[in-house]
Amino acid sequence: RLQLVESGGGSVQPGGSLRLSCSVSEYANKRYCLGWFRQVLGKEREGVAAIDNKGTTKYIDSVQGRFAISQDYAKKTLYLQMNSLQIEDTAMYYCAADWNCMVRPELPLVDFEFFGQGTQVTVSS
Question: Does residue 91 have a pLDDT over 90?
């Protein structure tokens, strides 16, 4: 059974940085997508960034140039480097996975099939 376990959340001031990590217990398919989603209480969950097995990435406009998604397949770990954090980035961040998929940069991020439990990121002064 797939398990996604996030870590690295915390509290930072505006302009600060955090690095999220996600341990992926298994890869069920050679074609896969991994991603980060976030949700603020009372709002819908939104896709933030995604990467597929070929290394194709996708970001939402609000984090483009500030966040970087990467993966270490050998370590079964997904990362999200978040720089220049803004108060609006405050949310619960979820690691996500989907199999037999590919990232299409020209299309919006859609929900993945599997999600972790989440890690809280709080940006405040």
Answer: yes
Contact 80, 20 (CB under 8 A): yes
The conformational region for residue 21 under phi > 0 = left, psi -120 to 50 = alpha, else beta, is beta
First to last CA, the chain: 40
Q: How far apart are CA 113 and CA 18, in angstroms?
A: 25
Cα-flanking dihedrals φ and ψ of residue 34, to 5°? -125, 145
DSSP string spanning 92-118? Answer: EEEEEEEES----TTS-----SEE---
At which residue do the structure tokens 């954090």 appear? 85
pLDDT digits (tens, 9 = 90+) for 32-77: 999 999 999 999 999 999 999 999 999 999 999 999 999 999 999 9
